[in-house]
Sequence to fold (256 residues):
Amino acid sequence: MCPAIILLSALLLQSPDEADFLLTNIADARIRTSDNSSAQLSSWYSRKPIIMTLVYSRCPGVCNPYLLQIRDHVLLQAAPVERFQMLVLSFDTEDSPAQLRKLAGFNDSSPPPPNWTFGVLEKENSADLLSSIGFQTQPVNGTYDHNTVMVLVGQDGRIHQWIEGLPDNRQWDRLFRELTNDFVPVYSTLNRNVWTSCFQYDPASGYWKVNWGLLMILAPSALTVCIIMILQAIATSGRRKRNLLILIPNNHEYIE
Fold:
């Protein structure tokens, strides 16, 4: 069997989950943005939230269509460009920012928006960064097998959204609502049925359903209300009996 297929199967079997990375700290790393310029990743997300993904320009497979679809979705969104920074990074040290811009479909006559940055990870701390976002890569015959990951990193340096594969419309909506600080009541963070969760998302129907966890939260309050009502009923009944015992002797004394 082809070694690349075996390796890809191993990567899929060890596929990470959103819950493993949500609200965890992203590792810092140095980014080369031109031949003479580089900066720490934290210098971007400390100023504004970043949407970050990783590709490499020599990729014979998914990187080009993946990045083009991300570009089209981001450019179509109504979120103001000053609210976030789009960061496209290569994990291949042979890459250049110019090659990444070309991979994303930009050129001199059609430049990227001002909030887009293309850069190449330098070797220092790059492994820590890839591990912190669940990006898996392995060299195979001069190229790389890898998964596709996009993250939304807040100014606190923590991952607020983690998406593996190309985002669907629901995930794009969730990501940009997070950027614009819209209220999102629940998130689909667990891709398995956990009975203690308050809600479960059914991907087949696209609807949320109440789960046992919500009952566990509401049960103590409901029980407390019931106990209070019972105690009030007992107290009221006791007062009525005492009043009746007081009235009956007084009535007999009046009749006599």
The chain has a mean pLDDT of 82. The first strand starts at residue 30 and ends at 34. Residues 196-256 form one domain.
